[in-house]
Write a structure and sequence with these properties.
The complex is a heterodimer of chains A (350) and B (368). Chain A is α/β, with parallel strands linked by helices and 350 residues long. Helix content of chain A is 30%, strand content 22%. Chain B is globular and about 65 Å long. Classes of the chains: A alpha/beta (350), B alpha/beta (368).
Chain lengths: 350, 368
């Protein structure tokens, strides 16, 4: 048996958490140029905690999650950086070893359960398959396990429904079956990529509560990827806001949503109507459109849409890319913005 | 109390007040049953999808009525019936004092000048082979309307109104982003100066930061041009922001209708309570709202539950709910124009109650 060496990270420091992502980059070479879908994202996550990754389409949030599962292997994507999961590095991990982890230690709930479930196979068999790949068990045991999982996620009459095909399930039930499949091996890291975007609001509330309650029971680490700040506020401990492939704000949900420090985060919070906002004032939208990832604006990627760039002396927003730095003396709350603290006084408090 | 569909109470209490003359759009008893057929040569009807099953509402000039509900509740079908993209199986639609329920296609074109639609998907609702100018001019050409400044000038004016560059007149839809395409769709709807626009999920396909831009645009159009809107959306916060009155639909029926404050602050129907409590708010500290988690999904509209359709998911359901269908009435405690179809209405408040209502069996087991 080989002697286990301590993990060797690039800068020599040991991984500081259960999941430690350092300077992750995912680039896609295309005919039009290099698409920097993810360009240097770092975060950590402990077991039993939930991280919400928020961003618009094209901000790189889904590409990040696919990298955690090693699903860019075998594509033209160029990965760099480090992903440390429980002392093991995933970016350089060969595919067979990744296969052993996938589904067992890391698993994923996809956005659209209708296309993520195979239409030809019974739902129960698809759940049992995920179990059989990682466990020496008989088909009967695996099926019992599938029935047990369907019961846990709240499918009525699981003994009968286990033999149904995906089209016989409603949208909410399909998403429950996806959750059952991803939890069948008790994963330590669960990634949910827009798990409720395709669902109605009442079903969304059920599914989000279900993910939360199951997490409490299994003690796994959860990453929820969404464009909805409301979903993050209801489910997550920490929040990472992405824009143009980079992290622009990162901190606890309370800090980021109650005291947002990046103009993009303020903009998102102010542009969304809520059930308690004043209906007689106009919404305060963010100007312009999300940037193209091939031609990112120089300097801060948000600068062309930012209403505050004139307050930074010397036009630095257009020339110099801001680095993530602690905000308001709080090491746990970082944002990438040149704007000085005393220039943020008149932003609308949320 | 009368509980039959044609009770006098319901007639007087109903939102549509036929003959009152001041409503721009009056819909009564509107019904759309899509037949389910079986057989290859001799097809016979074996059932019907009861997408819209007898609804009444009215829209006043310049007013916005929001239509909310979960997918499959019939809100989009209602929009398509009102614009007569579908022919209703029963009921009547009066627009601008004229009955358009079964108007033939040729004469319907005339009425559609006043009655336009904005579609949900800005990608599939614009012809990719037509330039923006052609797209916006087509409604004018089809109606044989020549504005005095000419088609091109008018199209460019419209582009400017919706916040696009008039010089982009000759570009194709593929050269625009989702938000800009939705603006093109809005410009097309405005081309004939309509009195009513049916907007079917106009912002739900757009990115979060773009949604507010389009909502603001629609709101300024409503204020400046006095256009009435039938605003169909599943996002309750957007509907609250845009609509003066709101109707909540469930399985082809309107279960509650009232002005914005009534629906969002003093809802009476349990379903409205459940919908509102399910909206995730970007406030990590909760906000002291009630917590209701329904079980399962909306039942099929092919064989909807008897009596009150919400009873299969309702925590207050009793025997009466299965036998008697509750009429849409101004129940005691409601302000004028606030109608609720429920035998056992809730307290008019949305603040947190003593106990949470968890009907989902899996959640209830996990939270014990």
């Amino acid at each position: 048996m080989a002697i286990e060496l301590p993990p060797q990270t690039a800068d020599g420091t040991a991984p500081s958490a259960f999941l430690d992502v350092r300077d992750l980059q995912v680039h896609f070479p295309t005919e039009d140029g290099l698409v920097k879908a993810v360009d240097g994202v770092s975060f950590t996550l402990e077991k039993g905690r939930t991280l919400g990754i928020v961003g618009e389409s094209g901000s790189g949030k889904s590409v990040t999650s696919l990298a955690l599962l090693g699903l860019h292997k075998g594509t033209r994507a160029i990965l760099s950086g480090e992903i440390w999961l429980d002392g093991e590095e995933l970016v350089a991990l060969p595919e067979p070893a990744m296969r052993a982890l996938r589904g067992e230690k890391v698993s994923m709930i996809f956005q659209d359960p209708l296309s993520a479930l195979h239409p030809f196979y019974m739902v129960g068999n698809q759940i049992a398959e995920a179990y059989l790949v990682h466990h020496k068990a008989s088909k009967k045991e695996a099926k019992d396990r599938a029935i047990d999982m369907l019961k846990r996620v709240g499918i009525p009459q699981p003994e009968r429904r286990v033999n149904d095909y995906p089209h016989q399930f409603s949208g909410g039930m399909r998403q429950r079956a996806m959750i059952a499949m991803s939890l069948v091996c008790n994963p330590e890291l669960l990634i949910a990529d827009e798990p409720t975007t395709a669902l109605d609001v009442t079903v969304q509330a059920q599914i989000l509560d279900l993910i939360h309650d199951l997490q409490q029971e299994y003690g796994s680490a959860v990453i929820i990827i969404t464009h909805d700040l409301g979903v993050v506020a209801q489910t997550s401990n920490d929040i990472l806001v992405m824009y143009g492939g980079r992290c622009i704000e990162y901190g606890s949900v309370q800090d980021v949503l109650n005291h947002p420090e990046h103009p993009y985060t303020w903009g998102l919070l102010q542009s969304m109507p809520s059930l308690s906002s004043d209906v007689h004032t106009k919404l305060n939208p963010i100007k312009g459109n999300p940037p193209s990832l091939i031609n990112l604006p120089s300097g801060c990627a948000f600068s062309p849409r930012c209403a505050f760039k004139d307050r930074v002396p010397g036009g630095r927003c257009m020339t110099e890319r801001p680095e993530l730095r602690p905000m308001a003396g709080n090491d746990q709350h970082i944002a990438a913005c040149h704007l000085a603290d005393d220039e943020k006084t008149d932003r609308v408090a949320k | 109390m009368n509980t039959t569909e044609s009770s006098p109470e319901q007639q007087t209490g109903s939102v549509a007040q036929p003959g009152s003359g001041e409503n721009l759009l009056e819909v009564s008893g509107l019904q759309m049953h899509f037949p389910i057929r079986q057989g290859i040569i001799f097809q016979r009807q074996i059932g019907a999808v009861r997408a819209v099953d007898g609804i009444d509402f009215a829209v006043k000039p310049g007013e916005s009525l929001g239509l909310v509900g979960e997918s499959g509740c019939g809100k989009s079908t209602t929009g398509r019936l009102v614009t007569r993209l579908l022919e209703p199986t029963a009921g009547s639609i009066r627009f601008d004092g004229e009955d358009i329920t079964h108007k033939p296609v040729a004469t319907m074109r005339k009425a559609r000048q006043q009655l336009q639609m904005i579609f949900q998907d800005p990608y599939s609702s614009l012809n990719p082979r037509h330039t923006v100018g052609t797209i916006i001019e087509t409604p004018m050409r089809l109606s044989d309307i020549t504005p005095k400044q000419g088609h091109k000038k008018r199209a460019q004016e419209l582009l400017e109104i919706v916040g696009l560059n008039p010089e982009h007149y000759n570009r194709y839809p593929s050269e625009f982003s989702g938000g800009q395409r939705q603006r093109i769709g809005i410009a097309r709807a405005l081309a004939l100066k309509p009195k009513l626009i049916v907007a079917d999920e106009p912002v739900s396909a757009l990115d979060v930061s773009i949604q507010a831009q389009v909502v603001n645009l629609l709101q300024s159009l409503q204020e400046e041009m006095g256009i009435a809107f039938l605003f169909i959306a599943h996002d309750l916060a957007v509907v609250r922001h845009f609509s003066q009155r709101v109707a909540v639909m469930y399985l082809g029926k309107i279960v509650e209708v009232g002005n914005r404050t009534d629906i969002y602050q003093r809802p009476r129907h349990p379903y409205t309570h459940a919908l509102l409590s399910a909206v995730p708010e970007a406030n990590p500290d909760g906000g002291g709202r009630e917590r209701i988690r329904l079980a399962g999904d909306v039942p099929s509209p092919i064989g909807p539950p008897s009596g009150c359709r919400f009873r299969t998911r309702c925590w207050k359901a009793q025997e009466k709910c299965a036998s008697d269908e509750p009429p849409l009435l101004q129940i005691s405690g409601n302000s004028a124009g606030h109608l609720t179809a429920c035998h056992f209405p809730e307290e008019p408040s949305i603040t947190a109650r003593d106990e949470v209502i968890i009907l989902d069996p899996a959640l209830a087991a996990l939270e014990e």
